[in-house]
Amino acid sequence: MDPSEEPWASSTTPTSSSRPPSPKSQKSQRSVKSSRSARSGQSNRPTEQTPLLARTDSSDDEDEAEPQTSATSSLLQSLNGSTSGKTPLWKRRWPSILALVLLCIFVILIMFGFLASEGIEEYAKQASDFKPTKLSLDSLTQHGVKVQIEGDFTMDASKVQKKSVRNFGRFGTWIAHEAETGATDVQVYLPEYGNILVGTAKIPAIKVNIRNGHTTHISIFTDLEPGSFDGIRNIANDWIEGRLGHIRVKGKAQVPLKSGLIHLGSQYIEESLVFKGNDLPALPRYDITKLNLREAKDGIKGMGADVSIVVENDFPVQLTVPPVSVDVLVGGCQPSDQHIMVGTAETAQMNVEPKTNVEVNVTGHVESLPDSLTTTCPHSKKSPLDWLVGNYMQGEDATIYVNCCKFPDASTPDWARDLLKDITVPVPFAGRDMGSLIKNFTLADVHFNLPGFFAEPGTPEAAPRVSAMIKVVIALPKEMNFPIDVDNVLAKADVFYKKKKLGILDVPKQKANSTRVEAQGKDGPLLLVESYIKEAPLEITDDDLFTEVVSALLFGGKSIMLDIKAAVSVGVDTPIGKFVVREIPAEGVIPVKPNVTGPAIGHGNGDGGGDSIGKLSPKIGNLSIIGTSPTSITLQAYVNVTNPTNYSATVPYFNINILVNDTVLGQATAKDILVHPGNNTNIRVTAVWDPFTNSGAEGKAVGKELLSQYVSRYNTSLTLQTHAGTIPAQPALGSLLSKFPVTFQTPSLATPKKPSDDDPEGPDKPKDEGSHFIREATMHLISSTAIFTLASPFSTTTLYITHLNATAYHDSQPSGKILYDLPIAVPPGLSDTPRLPVDWSLGSVGYDAIKKALGGTLKLSAFADVGIRIGQWRQDIWFQGGAIGAHVRL
């Protein structure tokens, strides 16, 4: 510091502030003073009349002259001996000398008092400011690292809170001007971790300007030596795992200090700092810009990975990181379990620049997966690999662990290897929602298996089962550039309709195959997975919703969309081996078409939509009676029916009610039938006709009326309707389908003939337009008898007419009447009745018409009350026939 720059700089100040002046110097001073006394009259030059403290200013670097008062001028004149008198020189100057000495001592005492007091410590803590501009790793040494630290040191008095300390500190540092520390060692300890030594920094001498507002640029090299390796690793692991809520750091140093030529001795410094919450540094943010999973190169077994990561660097750090190799691990079954190693990763040498993002290129390698990774966890159905892949494919952050560090470069010091080994860093990476990657999910060749008769409701055996070919097209992530083959699948899927859960589809383990389709343009590769699921149980959980689905299919005439949310387990074959990935989330939409392509039958409109029930078009033929009781008759028939859907079904047992005008008259049962899309022929059905047992007296009356109209060739129809016992193991399904009854025309009676695809009705056509039951009649006038030719619809059963009360008409006029109470057998095929006595209506118009037709043929009509019997079953009916061809003979 140049003395001429300071307001109190004088030739006597340095000596008086250090030690008493020597005689030689005193003589010199007197000579100088005499010379100055001789020039005391020149007021424009600095003399002893110049005030020692001209003014007090906020700036420590500029001084301005102030006007002198008369008192001040008089005092100075008396001190410099300008008064006239005869007093000796030393007597005249002793006040000046005494004042100057006292002032110097006073200033020195103030400065040392300030430096030795707590005031300077408080001022130094609050006013000092160091901003690092560069931190670079210069080189690795055998015991640590040599680091270059650069930064700017500034004293800012405005940051000091107390005014007295601020003013006193500015005054003291303005006097001291500079401070210098000698070379020292700084030890850093962690009191809460057993007071372990973290490390030692060897700091060289540093000189700084400590005056307010001045900035000193510092550039030093320091050697850093780590302390306890185990302690450093422990605190590093606590920080990485989030267990470090705060940390207290204590530093110790013996620092030699001096200011200018004044040595302040060695100062023992011990300081503790507590870092809490956000004060603790966090792991730097990073972004994975490239991920390429591939098959290992150069004939190496396994799978490789190329990863590019951009790491944010907000610190003024410059260093060169040597090549590093790390182990890649994943979590075990429990958080407390030891991590499982799956592969290794390496980085090349990296150069880190201050406050510049760092691009890290990583090459990984996985040779094979350990058994501990693919083995299911206790009390669980998943393995650690399942949890990892499941989280990733659900779009959740998955976590891998990096165990640091190995250094392939042999020149890396041993202390670096020992310090960084066994430090594990969790690395989260964002998942991919695989649901959005499913491009297509379809079911083809769908086949339904209904439960058997003996299956107990509510048991797994009672659930309907679905067989189908599943086809899933998956858009693979672009990062997956290695061969993958899916060889089996297992899934449990929730089925939804209009966002409401319809049921659960449980797909057992099935064989599968996959085909990779390479990328086209900007699109990534595709993977087509096909698997035929066989008899997967379908549990209906919402009967009302299922009713809505069936109704939409049968009557809506349009496809419906079923949403599938499944947990899929797949067996895959990859370059790192075969393993199973369980419960991968998958979503898809299955369009369900209501009917097959083709013209509508019945109520349809011919465009593939409309009422699908009308397209069933059931046809019944080849009736045969296989059993009777006093109230029932059991029949067997062959049925042709059209399945209007694209789906097939196996029906072990199916029972359905037969109704007329909402009155149950019997049941039909089918067993072990296979229904496929389109026309199904020759389905054998057994029907029990028992109106009285099913509906009592009302049923008996309705049954009589139906049979009477039927044999009289009226247009009649039957209704088929399911019930709770239709599928014994699925009463809810039967009740549900009962809301969709099927009504069809009663099949005509005919000579037995199996129906064919070309002629689904299968009956013989009547030879005339008369009743299909009475083919013809022969009237004998002289004997007053008649013979009728009858056609039985049964192929093996003889029908008996137990009694007959019939009247013949011509043009609505009675011609004759037959009363007969003896049984008449009607065997299969065509047969003639015995001669039946006729009571002619003599004189009537009808009888005259018969006589006129003698030798020819006459069309007659008839009405009769008839009793019939088949085995044990008996039934009274009425019969009305028209246009019966009657031959008239004598």
TrEMBL record:
Compositional bias annotation for Basic and acidic residues: 754-770
Transmembrane parts of this sequence: 96-116
Start and end residues of each Tag1 C-terminal domain: 480-593
Record's keyword annotation contains Phosphoprotein: no
UniProt KW keywords: Membrane, Transmembrane, Transmembrane helix
Domain Tag1-like fifth Ig-like: 767-878
Superkingdom of this protein's organism: Eukaryota
Region (Disordered): 1-86, 747-770
Low complexity bias (residue ranges): 10-43, 68-79
Record Pfam families: LEA-2_1, LEA-2_4, LEA-2L_5, Tag1_C
Protein name in UniProt: Pre-rRNA processing protein
